[in-house]
Amino acid sequence: LPPAEAEALVRALQGSELRDIGGQGWLRQHEYVEKLNMHGILSASAGQEQLLTELLVTHAKIPVLIGELISVEIWKHKIFPVLCRLEDFKPRSTFPIYVVLHHEASIINLLETVFFYKEVCESAEDSILDLIDYCHRKLILLAAGSTKAQAADPVPPQELQKQAEMMEFEISLKALSVLRFITDQVDSLPLSALTRMLNTHNLPCLLVELVEHCPWSCWEAGKLKKFENGTWHVVPPEDHVKMTKLDGQVWLALLNLLLSPECQHKYRFDGFNKSQLLKLRAFLTDVLIDQLPNLVEMQRFLSYLAVTEPAPPKKDLILEQVPVIRDHILKKNSGKWEAIAKHQVKHAFSLTEEELKLQARRWAQTYSLDMMEALAPDKPRCRVCGAEAAKRCSRCRNEWYCTR
């Protein structure tokens, strides 16, 4: 995006009411988010994401994005199930609902791109507590294996529910990355944020669960598969012990939360927490440490923890802040879920043929083929031999070939 257009899109971002989700004004807002998301990914791959970061910080839009993220999460868990049960919910096109389901993924992806920077984390201000809680909820689902899609009949609304479950897994993985970036800034976080991560949510023990169960890795038909760059890949035997980016995110978050002096003063190293953390020693192999040398410090810390009784945390008087965005939305809309769902069936998810065509044209401009190819993590492969391909079928525009 040209700098002026990027700034205009950032300035246009604003919070949405729950009942407006899926409406025309909200869809325009999603379009802005999607363009900024794609702009952020392309800029990051070229090492030029500073402009987007500065715009979001200057115009104080990080709290707005966090608010939108939580609004859609609540919509998905409170209103979407009611919507699917309504008898008059028989949309000719499920396109607008797919957009709503994708909105949460777009925002968390945008936050993942920019939260690498300290100033972005600081600009979140009090809303960082809501973001920490959001990431915690996603990590619990991940650790419990509740995000894996179940088989469903390919008929709306069952197909929509299946789509929502599939996306939940990818969103949870993005939330893991965002949380790791937050832990990079423990020295500049508010005291309440640190207390919430360490003692309210006990994130170190939750991260131990992720190391143990590794939800992005599974065995299928005798082959190891790992989830990376949006798809499951079969891992060749020689790469079975290779650390993935997701493995690295968990270990880096643990390093930040356990080895920072500030965290060690606040964390409760009681009997349960100590026994959970010592499980990590079994995973700290020489092969793993060769790939992430900082883990030597973790190994030393765990050896020390095994033979000593750490001092109890200081009993300081702390006036703890609490997250307000989610609580505010829930209180404001409590008992209104069915009414909101009926309003949205009537005004957002029963579009006329002309309205659908108009919306489709708008999205065709946003999601151009050239843009999609630039965002793709892998080069196209030949349909026949699997080699890297440079020629695309002129008829269907989908299949690729290495030669004529």
Automatic annotation (TrEMBL):
Domain of life, per UniProt, equals Eukaryota
Output the InterPro entries linked to this UniProt entry: ZMYND10
This one is known as ZMY10 protein
According to its UniProt entry, the protein's GO biological process terms are: inner dynein arm assembly; motile cilium assembly; outer dynein arm assembly
- PANTHER family on file: ZINC FINGER MYND DOMAIN CONTAINING PROTEIN 10 (PTHR13244), ZINC FINGER MYND DOMAIN-CONTAINING PROTEIN 10 (PTHR13244:SF7)
What gene name is listed for this protein?
A: Zmynd10
An example GO CC term for this entry is: centriolar satellite
